[in-house]
Write a structure and sequence with these properties.
Chains A, B: One of its GO terms (cellular component) is cytoplasm. The structure is a homodimer. Chain A is α/β, with parallel strands linked by helices. Chain A has 14 helices and 15 strands. In chain A, 38% of the residues lie in helices and 15% in strands. Chains A and B meet through helix 2, helix 3, helix 5, helix 6 and helix 11 of A and helix 2, helix 3, helix 5, helix 6 and helix 11 of B.
C-alpha cells in the first residue's frame, strides 16, 4: 500500500480546514510554487524565446500527456494537453462526426456536465443539416444507442451524484451499433482507475485541476485511440497541430497521430504547475488510491447515514458504481452547505438539492472523514443553517 | 514623453543580450514572478476553490479584457480573455458567418499567419456546403472584397514583413459590400496604436505573449463590436459563456454581450503574469510607444542599410505603413540569423529568406539599436555565418 502520509505532506492544506472539494479544485502541491517560479525566472526570464526548445516547452503537451496516459490506461503517444475541457469536447466530437459522415446524432445523457451539452449544441448548430444532440436519462443511455447514433458523449462519473457509467459495456454497445464514443474523464482521471485501452474507447477528454491538482485553469487533455488518430481530421486545425508548424505553409496538413490535436501555443506556466502535481502521482498507484478512496467513502457514508437521517444518499451505495465523491440530497442543501463551509468543512452545492463531497486519498484520511461527519451531524442535529438564506452564486464545478 | 528608462527597469533582460524578439515572446516583467507566486500561495494555496470569487478569478477575463481594450481602442465590456489566438480566430469567424447566412466566403490574404488560415480551413471543412476560404496577395485583398464575401480575416501587421494593412479603409470597403471583418492583432496590440472603435471593426482577436509580455502561452483575447455582441451566436458554446453558468441548465443560453465569448475555465496563473505585464503599460501611452518605435526602427533601417548592402529591406520604408518590426531579406537568412544569435543579437528567421527584428520601446533603446547594427555589420562584412548550415527547426513566431 502506498504511504498516503507521504503524499499528503506534498500538499499545502490550510490549518483547520477539512477540504472535501478537490473534485472542484485540487489543493496546491507544495512544489508547484517553486516549479512555476523556476519556469518563470530561469526559463522565460533567462532563455526567453529559446525556452521553446531549450526548456522543452514545445514538447510539454505530449510529454505531460504521456504521464497522464499512465493514469488512464492510455499508451504513450495517445494523449496531448491543451486548451480547456470544453474545447476538447468540441474537438473530439467534431472529429468523431467526420468519421461517421452518414450519421447525424450525438447521444448524451442528462447527467452530463452542462458545458459538454452546450459544446455539442454549439457544434450541431454550426453544422446544421439535421445534425442533432439527443439526451436521455443516464440509466437509459445504453438502451438508446442504435445505428442512427454517430457518437456518444458521456461523462463517466456524474458531477452531481458520483454515479459511474460502465465505460467498457457502453463502448461495446456503441461499437456494435457502429457508433464512436467520447468519454469525459473530468471526475475520473485521478479519481478512479480508467482503462481506455481495455475499454476500447475512441476519444477521451478531461481536465487536470480537479483530482490531478494542476491549479485553477490548468490545461485539459485529449486522447484518441491509436488506430483512429491518423484518420481523425481536426476541425480545430491550429498551427501546432500541423505536420510542420515551423514551415509556415499556407495549407494545413495534420500532424502525426495525437499531435494533430494540438491547436495553439500551450500554457507553459500552467503546465509547470501540472508537472509538479504529477510528481506526486509517481509516489502511488491508481489501484491504491482507489482502494483507499473506497474505504474513505464507505466510512463517510456510514457515518453520515448513522447521524443524519434527514440526508438522503444520492450516490450509488455500491462502491463499484461510483467515483470518488459522495453526495447527499436535502431540499435546503444550499443553506446547509453554507453552514458547513462556515465551519470549515468545504464541499460543494449543486442545484437543486445536492451536497457534494470529494475524497482524494492523496491528502484526505480518516481524521478528515471523522471530522466532517461530526460537523455535519452537529449542523443537522442543531439545524444550524440559515433557513432563509437565499441562493447566492454557487462556485465552480 | 514617457520615461522609457523606467519601463525598461521593469523587465528582466539578460546581461549582454540584445533582444529583438519581443514580437515572438516578450521578456519577463520583473513583477510577474512575484504576482504569480502570490496567486499560487495566497490564492490557490489558502483560498482554494473560494479563489474563484474571493480572489476575483472568475471576473479576470473581463477585467483584464478591459485593460487590453484601452490599448486597442475598445470600450469597457467589449474584450474578453481566454483560450489561444487560434481558437479565438475560429470563434470570431464562426460567429461572423452566422451573421451573414447567405454568404459562403471567408476572404484572407497570403500574408496572414498560417494558423489563421488553418483555422479558417478547418471551419469551412466542418461547415461543408460550399463554404470556402479564399486567399489573395496582401495588396489585392482590398480589391477582392465584394458582395460574395461573408467576412474578411486579416492580420493587420504581417508577421514576416511588418507591412501594415489599413484597418479603417478595408473595414469601410467590407461594410460597403455588406461583409464583416475579423482583425488579427497579434503584431498590433502593444505595437501600434489600434482604434477598433474608430475603424468600426466587427471582430478582433489577438495574443498577449508578444508585445504585451504575458509570458509563454498567455491567454488570447477577442473583441466584438458592441452592437453586434448581442446577436453574435457563439459556436464554441462553453459554460462560462452561458447566461448563468452556475445554474447548470441543460440548455445553452448565451451570456450578455462579450461574456458569451468565454468558453471554459480561464488560466488563472497565466492571467496573473499578464496582469503584472499590463501594469507596465500604465506607465506609458500607446502614442509615446509608437513615436519611439518609429525613431528606433528608422535608426535601425538607416544603420543596416548603410552598413550591409547585401540585406534587402522587406519592411515598408514609410513608417506609417509598418508595425513595430523591421525585416530584411537574404537568401542565406537562416544561417545569418544563427550567426547573430550566437553573438547575442536575438531576432527571428522566417522562411524562406526573412530576418525579422522586433523593436519594443518599453525595453529597447538606442544602445540596443546601435549594438545590433554593429554586430549585423560585422557578421555581414566578414561573412561570419556558416554557409553550409542546413535549416534547423525554427522557433515560435
Amino acid at each position: 500500500m502506498s504511504d498516503f502520509n507521504k503524499t499528503r505532506s506534498e500538499f499545502h492544506l490550510p490549518e483547520g480546514l477539512i477540504y472535501l472539494d478537490g473534485n472542484s479544485l485540487g489543493p496546491l502541491p507544495r512544489k508547484a510554487a517553486e516549479r512555476v517560479a523556476s519556469t518563470i525566472t530561469a526559463e522565460w526570464g533567462d532563455m526567453l524565446v529559446t525556452g521553446w526548445n531549450k526548456a522543452g516547452w514545445m514538447a510539454k503537451p505530449t510529454d505531460i500527456g504521456d504521464r497522464i496516459g499512465k493514469l488512464i490506461g492510455a499508451p504513450a503517444g495517445t494523449v496531448v494537453m491543451g486548451d480547456t475541457l470544453s474545447i476538447k469536447v468540441f474537438q473530439a466530437l467534431a472529429s468523431a462526426l467526420r468519421l461517421r459522415p452518414d450519421r447525424k446524432i450525438i447521444l448524451s445523457d442528462t447527467g452530463n456536465f452542462p458545458s459538454d451539452l452546450y459544446m455539442a449544441e454549439g457544434l450541431v448548430g454550426l453544422l446544421g443539416q439535421d445534425y442533432s444532440l439527443e439526451t436521455v436519462a443516464p440509466e437509459e443511455v445504453e438502451g438508446a444507442i442504435d445505428e442512427t447514433v454517430a457518437v456518444t458523449l458521456i461523462t463517466e462519473v456524474d458531477y452531481r451524484t458520483g454515479r459511474m457509467h460502465d465505460m467498457k459495456r457502453i463502448t461495446e454497445k456503441a461499437h456494435a451499433a457502429g457508433a464512436l464514443t467520447v468519454w469525459d474523464l473530468a471526475h475520473s482521471a485521478g479519481a478512479v482507475p480508467v482503462d481506455l485501452t481495455g475499454a476500447d474507447a475512441d476519444f477521451a477528454v478531461g481536465c487536470t485541476y480537479k483530482y490531478l491538482n494542476s491549479g485553477p485553469g490548468g490545461p485539459a487533455f485529449i486522447y484518441v485511440r491509436p488506430d483512429l488518430a491518423e484518420s481523425a481530421e481536426p476541425a480545430l486545425a491550429g498551427w501546432l497541430g500541423h505536420e510542420q508548424p515551423f514551415a509556415f505553409d499556407q495549407n494545413y496538413r495534420p500532424g502525426r497521430g495525437i499531435e494533430r490535436m494540438r491547436v495553439g501555443t500551450p500554457p507553459v506556466l500552467q503546465m509547470a504547475a501540472l508537472e509538479a502535481a504529477l510528481d506526486i502521482w509517481d509516489m502511488t498507484t491508481m489501484a491504491d488510491v482507489r482502494a483507499r478512496s473506497i474505504e474513505l467513502t464507505e466510512r463517510f457514508i456510514a457515518g453520515v447515514e448513522a447521524a443524519c437521517p434527514e440526508l438522503t444518499l444520492a450516490t450509488p451505495r455500491e462502491a463499484a458504481l461510483r467515483g470518488s465523491q459522495v453526495s447527499f440530497r436535502h431540499p435546503e442543501g444550499y443553506a446547509i452547505m453554507q453552514a458547513l463551509i462556515a465551519r470549515k468543512v468545504i464541499g460543494d452545492f449543486r442545484a437543486p438539492d445536492i451536497l457534494r463531497f470529494g475524497f482524494t486519498p492523496l491528502y484526505i484520511g480518516e481524521a478528515e472523514v471523522e471530522g466532517a461527519v461530526k460537523i455535519i451531524a452537529e449542523v443537522m442535529d442543531g439545524k444550524l443553517w440559515d433557513r432563509e438564506e437565499y441562493k447566492r452564486r454557487a462556485r465552480v464545478t
